[in-house]
Amino acid sequence: MIGENIQHIRKKKGLSLSECAKRANISKSYLSNIERNLNQNPSVQIIGKVAMVLGVDFRTLLGTKSVEELLPENEWLDFVKELKDSGIEKEQLQEYKTVIEFVKWQNEKINKERT
């Protein structure tokens, strides 16, 4: 799924595979393997680089909903309180959201493989 999303957005933006890989500072063959779903477990860093080159949010490539959409209101408030109590600064939250979305994507992939 992530490979298809990357390929679709890349083509929509008019970027060749070579140009996208070059801008993301990854090999063309590696990006090609991701797009063809031969590499189904790219790192958070790689996905982040590709998202930046394509000018999209990390979640767009993963095809996931935002954390806000996944948690009911009271759970969201508890989650924010826990983060605040742990000493995480507001500026650091985007880094953590990215990791959460990546873990969610991996779990969905594992669940699909089981069915």
Q: Strand count, sense and closure of the main sheet? A: none
Oligomerization state: single chain
Categorize the overall geometry.
globular
**Beta-strand share of residues:** under 5%
User: What would you call the structural class?
Assistant: mainly alpha
How many domains make up the coordinates? 1
Q: What is the mean pLDDT?
A: 81
What is the name of the CATH topology? 434 Repressor (Amino-terminal Domain)
CATH architecture descriptor text:
Orthogonal Bundle
CATH top level? Mainly Alpha
Query: What is the H-and-E element order?
Result: HHHHHHHH
Pfam family, one: HTH_3
Domain HTH cro/C1-type: 6-61
Keywords: DNA-binding
Protein name: Helix-turn-helix domain-containing protein
Task: Write up this protein.
The chain is an all-alpha fold and 115 residues long. The chain has one domain (2-114): Orthogonal Bundle (434 Repressor (Amino-terminal Domain)). It is built from eight helices and no strands. The protein has helices at 2-12, 17-24, 28-35, 44-54, 58-62, 67-70, 73-85, 93-114. Helix 2 packs across helix 3 and helix 2 (17-24) packs across helix 4 (44-54). The longest helix is centred in the last third of the chain and has 22 residues, at 93-114. The protein is globular and about 45 Å long. The protein starts with a helix and ends with a helix. The model has no long low-confidence stretch (mean pLDDT 81).
